[in-house]
Design goal:
Helices cover 54% and strands 2% of the residues. The protein is mainly α. The radius of gyration is 21 Å and the shape is globular. Bound molecules: zinc ion. Zinc ion (ZN) binds next to helix 12.
């Protein structure tokens, strides 16, 4: 078993990690939440700095974060307890910078996280108004070349819509919050956080270090966990719980801006789990086949293993690039098409159980995992084979321009592409329904639930 374990470790450890799941969460979130009465009818909120919340509610935050730690210990598999020294103390921070640092460390997120005051406007509304912030004032990750993303500054006291705060924040956990928090991370803080070593991926690649918080391998075969116990160490449930309960506290204590903002951050992790490649280790590969590939690698025949890693990565990235482009195009052109309707559709929301602490694992990730093999077949059939069936091609390492992929897709047989588009619409239906159900759960816990579709 030890040799097998080592080999599965080898299998996973060099897997390139796609990081952002659904590309731009904020764009899809605008569509998913723009018809939810509890959001669109919510009063506009007054922007306030984080410190207004931290200074005003210090004792309540201290108690909440202690409760979060107790919850995590009781409910999460393989949870590494937070070192006692990191527990939040309301009066320990001193000044504003100290309070923020103490808070971020107690959450065990990157202490240089900006939590800036900004919005990512809805691309449907055209050219955004307002002062653009420098990229690194919002995002700690390096700015990619030719980045089109813009962060628009908002100021304390300014009034903004709940929807814009919520949708913007649904992208925020991909802006550097979960980077380098492991023992073997090249950071000052990682070794102090007590999460252990990075469970899989390359600890020197910053994107890889966030993956275990944005993926959830909860529903694999038992033998996979026996062979590779590190796969239990994925923690999107921790983040969803931390931010959703912070949102509830912020709403309850008169900080609605931070109520919607923390809600959006919690939604991000729920949304990530609607991506089947984030909830299933190897879509399209049976456990027996995975183990067989590993056995071959054990005796030195590692070609099949390397092919598997590249193919999984290519399919994962191609799906996300194509989906993000569909949602963006539909938003910019104000289309009313199947993609938009799937995101907006509230008719399926009540089909699911009511929101709970473990909904993201038991409902969202399970649904996603169950869909993974079917999706893989449809995806492989629909996309040009060079992108998804050729292990010599590395989607992540190449400079594939999304427009090139879209052009290639336009030349494919519609009889093959249509089922793929239908699958993406179905997945975006999940994205929308689970986003709204999570939001209802948070509002319900805050005593703010109102009428509208869903299980409230
Ligand atoms: Zn993510």
């Amino acid at each position: 078993m030890k040799r097998l374990r080592l080999c599965i470790l080898v299998l996973i450890v060099d897997a390139p990690c796609a990081v952002s799941a659904w590309g731009s969460h904020n764009v899809a979130a605008y569509r998913a939440l723009e018809r939810m009465p509890e959001v669109v009818n919510a009063k506009p909120v007054v922007v306030e700095p984080l410190d207004a919340f931290l200074r005003g509610e210090g004792r309540a935050i201290e108690a909440l974060l202690a409760g979060q730690e107790a919850w995590a210990k009781a409910n999460l598999l393989a949870y590494p307890a937070r070192p006692a020294a990191l527990a939040y103390k309301a009066d320990a921070g001193g000044d504003e910078a100290g309070r923020k640092l103490t808070f971020l460390q107690a959450l065990r997120v990157s202490p240089d996280s900006r939590l800036a005051l900004y919005l990512q406007p809805d691309p449907r509304d055209g050219k955004e108004q307002g002062e653009t912030l420098p990229y690194d004032a919002v995002n700690t990750l390096p700015e990619p070349p030719n980045a089109s993303i813009r962060f628009v500054a908002v100021k304390p006291g300014q009034t903004v819509s709940a929807l814009s705060v919520l949708a913007t924040a649904s992208q925020e956990p991909d802006l550097g919050l979960d980077i380098n928090v492991w023992d073997d991370s090249p950071s000052e803080w990682g070794p102090r956080y007590g999460f252990g070593k990075l469970p899989f991926g390359n600890p020197t690649i910053n994107f890889s270090t966030q993956a275990p918080f944005h993926m959830g391998f909860f529903h694999e075969d038992r033998i996979v966990y026996l062979a590779a116990p590190f796969l239990k160490r994925t923690f999107p449930m921790l983040r969803a719980h931390q931010y959703s309960t912070l949102a509830t506290l912020a709403f309850r204590t008169g900080h609605p801006y931070w109520g919607w903002r923390f809600s959006g951050m919690a939604l991000h992790y729920v949304q990530d789990l609607t991506q089947p490649f984030h909830a299933s280790l190897a879509p399209g590969y049976s456990t027996a086949r995975l183990l067989g590939i590993n056995l071959m690698a054990m005796v030195g025949l590692s070609g099949a293993k390397q092919d598997l890693v590249v193919l999984l990565s290519n399919r994962h990235l191609a799906l996300e690039a194509y989906q993000a482009k569909l949602v963006l195009n539909a938003s910019v052109s104000r289309a009313d098409n199947a993609i938009v309707r799937a995101l907006q559709d509230t008719s399926q929301d009540a089909r699911y159980p009511a929101w709970s602490d473990l909904y993201a694992r038991d409902v969202v990730a399970q649904e996603s995992y169950d869909f993974a093999n079917t999706l893989n077949v449809i995806l492989v059939n629909a996309l040009p084979s060079a992108y998804v069936q050729d292990p010599a091609f590395d989607f992540g390492a190449s400079d594939v321009k999304i427009n090139k992929l879209m052009d290639a897709m336009a030349k494919m047989d519609p009889a093959k592409v249509n089922p793929f588009n239908d699958s993406i619409a179905e997945l975006l239906g999940h994205f929308g329904a689970h986003s709204r159900n999570a939001m209802r759960g948070i509002l319900n816990a805050a005593g703010m639930a109102r009428g509208g579709a869903g299980p409230l």
